[in-house]
Amino acid sequence: MLQATYLQRLEDWIDNYPWLEMLSSLSILIMVAIVITFIAKYIVVRGLFFILGKLKASHYNQYIKDSIVQRIANIAPALVILNGIVAVPHLSVKAIIFIQMLAQTFIILTIALAISGLLNTFNMMYKENPKSNDKPIKGYLQLIKLIMFIVCGLLILGTFLQKDILNVLAGFGAMAAVLMLVFQNTILSLVASVQIASYEIVRLGDWIEMPSLNADGTVTDISLHTVTVENFDKTFTTIPTNKLITDTFKNWRGMSNAGVRRFKRSIYIDQNSIHFLDEAAIEQLSGFALLQGYLKDKQNEIARYNQEVEHLGWHNQRQLTNIGTFRAYVENYLKNHPQVSQKDSLLVRQMQPESTGLPLEIYGFTTTTAWSEYEAIQSDIFDHLIAIIPLFGLKIYQAPSGLDLQQFIGDNKHQ
């Protein structure tokens, strides 16, 4: 009886202080939310984390736990507040509605962030597939996330305006043109991403060159809006995705797939050094194993031709030239080089004479695509050719230097 009387007095006293009853109820609600949070994070989350440990993608567990499971667990206290706030006495209707709006907003954002984390995890797992370099999906996932966050923003806006999302969308119908203008880069990037993936224009790991944007290196990332290139000087160039469709660039993937790399370089011959070969020069050059077959066949061919010309009474007889013999030597040298591909084009040809001499272009492919090895092979080939040219009585054209002028002046003084 005394206890009932005491409780009645306490209730009457609390009725005189409504704010105290409101704070007490809020405190109880917050304590319940904290308990639910503890249960969700330290019991449910640990249970899910234990199950994830049994999966093949266990090395992603920490990321999954932080970006997905922990965020989903945060929804539990928000739901408690969303449904429990109406039970708090003496709280105004506007305050209840505002707190419910905040709770709903928190829940919507949390779900969106959890889905975003799930998509990121899926992309990381997909990258372990060898086919991911040919068919990257990062751009598509970014588009999904963009659409998801737009819907999330509309849901939040509809929550605070207390309108259905369809009505909100109807209100945005008049702004369609503005939205198209705002998201034009995204639309262009989406179309470009589809074309790049469909036609395999660019893959992860490709070496591309785009001089207009100073890009020359390996593609390290393909996203919705940008393609990242790590240049050979260890800098990074970010290329808008649609630029790979509208602008020209060079992709070296074909070279990598073929396993060979082209070299094309010219040696400029001083045209004043070109002449016919006499018997002594022919005998000297016959000492080269690479020229023995050529000289024998060429001499027989010239002898037959000259006999016919002499029989006809003509005077334009043929002779061996040092430039033609050197060209044959270079061709045979390349054909017998172990690091020059014999399955691909191999040319030694004269180009249009220039003021700097007669260009003798050497065109072929090395059997490797490794940069350092390629440069070493190419350098060794031209080291040999430049060094052996004087044996053919040829000179390489070189613009006069200060030393040449000094020597010329000195020779004139002696004269």
From TrEMBL:
Cited Gene3D superfamilies: 2.30.30.60
Q: Which InterPro entries match?
A: LSM_dom_sf, MscS_beta-dom_sf, MscS_channel_2nd, YbdG
Where is it located?
A: Membrane
Instruction: Give the chief site where it resides.
Output: membrane
Tell me one GO molecular function of this protein.
mechanosensitive monoatomic ion channel activity
Determine if Phosphoprotein is one of this entry's keywords.
Answer: no
Keywords assigned: Membrane, Transmembrane, Transmembrane helix
- Coiled-coil regions, chain positions: none
Supply the name of the protein: Miniconductance mechanosensitive channel
Origin species, per record, is Acinetobacter rudis CIP 110305
